[in-house]
Amino acid sequence: MSQHVVVIGGVALGPKAACRFKRLEPESRVTMIDQTAMISYGGCGIPYYVSGDVSDASELSTTSFHMLRDPKFFKEVKGVDARILTKATRIDRENKCVEVENVATGEKACIAYDKLVIATGASPRRLGLPGEDLKGVNYVANPGDATRIREAISKGEVSNAVIIGAGFIGLEMAEAFADMWGVETSVVEITGQIMPRLVSPTLATMGRKHMEENGITFYFGETVKALEGEDGVVKRVVTDKRVLDADAVIISAGVIPNSDLARDAGLAVHERGGVYVDEFMRTNDPDIYAGGDCCIVRNLITGKDAFLPLGSMANRQGRIIGTNLAGGSSKFDGVVGSFVVKLFETSMAGTGMSLESAKAAGFDAMSVLLIQLDRAHFYPTKELMTLEMTVDKATRRVLGVQGFGSSGDAMVGRINAVAALLKSAPTIDDVSNMELAYSPPFAAAMDILNTLANLADNALNGINRGVGPAGFKELWDNRDKDACFFLDCREKGDADPFVERNPGCWHNVPQGEIYDRLDEIPRDRPIVLVCNTGARSYEAQIMLDDKGYKDVTNIHGGMAAIKKYGVDF
């Protein structure tokens, strides 16, 4: 029996649900409404239009075969009646209709439905700052925002840009301003690191250092108090510690789910916003579905509520909703939380929980950090990759993996492999023995993921006892007080420059010579072992343990991690 499905929202989930349903029930009607003039666009591509990587804003709204996804396209190609500039003002559940208003003419109407889909998305979080409405202050929510920003830069109106917030969009926009346009760019972040809660302070520091090398200035632990302007145009950003010149300001302080329409209709909504749905993407009204950025989902690691505004998730949920509207029973179990962000020629990626978020969720967790080549050591295009694994101590369950590496596919491929496992609560042993495709141009025979899990196993068993680059910095800064004996396990040629720069503090005994030179290694001082990546120093730790040394620390990630972290000595 044919039915009429109404979809509120035409960006990501809405079009996917509408088109999937229409394919399964061609005889049924679908009406999709959106209050803006532009629909079905790739919002995550906006920073890359600003940067110039995407040449035309219309490309964000076209198909892979270059058709513009406008109302005409949806009508003729998809059989969906797409009505733009049409705002849903009320859901009348009793009479099963959506009250709407034309935002251009003010004309009101009521659209009856058999089934309803709420895909209202999310809105940028406003900070309520004085001057927030000045010209030149922008959010990054739609292609119109991108066009305004890029036009201002192209006209030479922007010499200094300030980004408020060091999350995904903030970092991507900072790169866009500095890399393509040479704009002097600063990022103000209220917390102490980039990508707070998503990655460890160590990985965040590595990412920050790389962005600083590319001209970005960061101000952490600062609160923006006001935006000041002249003649209605923004000119300065005032924080609690300084005043920054700004011809353009991007506010990237997160988003808030657009769930008021659902709440007003009596649907179950989280106290901080976000529509509750079941595994079939149904609300507490069986005739109303919801998904995408306006929804609350289940975190598959903690079992708790989560809010994850990602276009990839919205598209997957849209297909599930479309299937279920046609009588199917597809399920969306939840999320583990996977991400990747490009930082110039590097990237930061992760899945699951960082150590900070795991502890906040109540896990007795630990983490280990590894730096290893992303492919066979003899292959010419090899690069170092940094991965960090978070593990629950009692159960050995892998809670998450995050990484910092090149902007190619190597690192995100590893992250995606772990993401696929996390919903099944894998242990260290599962990742240690994970089967991964191998060929020297693509991976090492013992893949970095296998080695990372082995490192976690050794750390839990007390075999590999160590700290990362942040721990090394603390030990080095306190070297006089703690009387540590820093032992470089590399060959003489690698170690000599550090021995010469730090006489009396830095010592060298290559790992293969340790048993023959034990008389040079004191037993009454803490020993700190360092090599290139932490592998030889681990072997040295085993050797010293064998000879009865009691206080030996291995630096995980070795000199490679120390360098990326920015320790200068």
Present the secondary structure layout.
Layout: E1 4-8, H1 13-24, E2 29-33, H2 46-51, H3 71-78, E3 81-83, E4 86-92, E5 97-102, E6 108-112, E7 115-118, E8 122-124, E9 137-138, H4 143-154, E10 160-164, H5 168-181, E11 184-189, H6 201-213, E12 216-220, E13 224-230, E14 233-239, E15 243-245, E16 248-251, E17 255-257, H7 260-264, E18 275-276, E19 288-290, E20 295-298, E21 305-306, H8 311-325, E22 338-343, E23 346-352, H9 355-360, E24 365-373, E25 384-392, E26 398-406, H10 409-422, H11 428-432, H12 448-460, E27 466-467, H13 469-477, H14 479-482, E28 485-488, H15 492-501, E29 506-508, E30 527-530, H16 535-546, E31 552-555, H17 558-565
Protein name: FAD-dependent pyridine nucleotide-disulfide oxidoreductase
InterPro entries: FAD-bd_OxRdtase, FAD/NAD-bd_sf, FAD/NAD-binding_dom, FAD/NAD-linked_Rdtase_dimer_sf, Pyr_nucl-diS_OxRdtase_dimer, Rhodanese-like_dom, Rhodanese-like_dom_sf
Organism: Pseudodesulfovibrio mercurii
Helix content: 25-40%
- Order of strands across the main sheet: 3-2-1-7-19
Shape: globular
Tally of structural domains: 4
Summarize the main sheet.
Answer: 5 strands, parallel
Number of helices: 17
Q: End-to-end distance, in Å?
A: 75 Å
CATH-wise, what's the superfamily of the largest domain? FAD/NAD(P)-binding domain
Q: Mind telling me the C-alpha Rg? A: 27 Å
Write a concise synopsis of the structure shown.
The chain is α/β, with parallel strands linked by helices and 569 residues long. It folds into four domains: 4-122 and 256-326, FAD/NAD(P)-binding domain (3-Layer(bba) Sandwich); 137-253, FAD/NAD(P)-binding domain, CATH 3.50.50.60; 339-457, FAD/NAD(P)-binding domain; 466-565, Oxidized Rhodanese, domain 1.
